[in-house]
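FAQ: What does a ligand-bound record look like?

Like this one, built around calcium ion:
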Amino acid sequence: MSIALIILAAGKGTRMNSDLPKVLHHVAGAPLLVHAMKSAAELEPEKTIVVAGHGAEQVSAAATAFDENAHVVLQTEQLGTAHAVAQAKEALSDFNGDAIVLYGDTPFISPETLVRMIEARKKYAVVVLGFEANDPGRYGRLVMAGDSLSKIVEFKDASDKERAITLCNSGVICADASVLFDLIDAVGNDNASGEYYLTDIVEIAQAKGLSATSVTCDESETLGVNSRVQLAESDAIFQAKARLALMESGVTLSAPDTVYLSHDTYIGPDTIVEPNVVFGPEVTVENGAHIRAFSHLEGCHVSRGAVVGPYARLRPGTELAEFTRVGNFVEIKNAVIDEGAKVNHLSYIGDAHVGARANIGAGTITCNYDGVMKHQTEIGADSFIGSNTLLVAPVSVGANAMTASGTVVTKNVPDEALAIARSKQENKPGLAVKLFDMLKKKKASKAKGAE
Ligand code: UD1
Ligand code: CA
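The answer part, i.e. the structure of the complex:
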């Protein structure tokens, strides 16, 4: 069975109080819209239609960044959910199969739930995803007659008896695409909101002799985001699930509640993650690594046996090979650190390649930016970079080479050479004692004057 997704993402999200369209607000490092698209992508849809309106350009960019084949259609006026779905009709004119309607602001519907809906479609023309709500509030209510769904009634239009129903509408609907668009054609806007309700298609289907039913899922899946508070709640739900999944897969989180993960964080078994570590997007950590407390990682790869932190910052393009060491207050950006190399203290390594087993002394800085352009630094295998070396890029240090502490390296250093570039030291015999005496006398005469 071919599947088409129709993802509604035209709404403004007034309660977010934001210039950014609601569906582009992030949970775990990805827009809400991408979460919805990502879980539905597991169904391998033939077509994905995103209905955009408010901030359509930005929404379109985010949708196609995730899936270059996503087709974005415009709903210029938000006249209701049925009207929104109708905007996808033209884009699906050649499509034969089931359409699934999802909301871009509802990030956690699981692929398994969608599969159960597709299964239910074998027996019913229209399948609606419902949930037992703890607090049904203003959700639409599902009116069931046995296994059959008679209608969906919006809260505003519901009688007291209908408002007492706790089985609520998630908004996710599945039907044959051409049936769906036929039903939508019959939807009017004579209701409390004056909107074209997608939910009306159930009653219309029943009147036409088409069957409808509901499939239910846990309320945590249907959580929609309408405010910053709900955004934070969604993130918390995501984090809790993702931490649990990591621990079950063999990762040690010594203080799980303090570790922040992204939607795509991968960490291999037997890696230990200490408290207060933040994983931004696009981080992969292999087995048996150790990420120590208060480290911040994004866009990087950490290999087996590497130790990172405490207080390390790995920025995009960082590649740590096996058994490397990156210690406290070290920032690395767009750099490859080869096997067994060490950058243990207070350094900035950017746009660089550090050879195997090299030792980068405390306070080393790659001066990669000349104010206009970025330049590369090469550091050879088994080299020793003395403390407080400045490497003014573009520059290279050969294999088995050394730099003296405090050296400003502006010329390439050949293999096996020692580079030293600092002013020569002079020792003045006995001068320290003379200076001490002079200073102590000064202090004493000052104290006398103050009496
Ligand atoms: C809708 C359902 C309600 C359900 C609830 C679940 C209808 C009529 N009601 O109500 O039964 O319990 O969701 O959260 O469907 N959208 C557009 N274009 C529009 C209107 C909406 O793209 O013209 C998008 C919104 O951006 C949003 C989604 O559709 O992502 C739902 O719209 P919203 O207005 O929030 O519907 P609810 O009133 O919450
Ligand atoms: Ca809503």
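Follow-up question: can I read anything off the structure? Yes, for example: Residues 224, 226 surround calcium ion (ligand 2) (CB under 6 Å).
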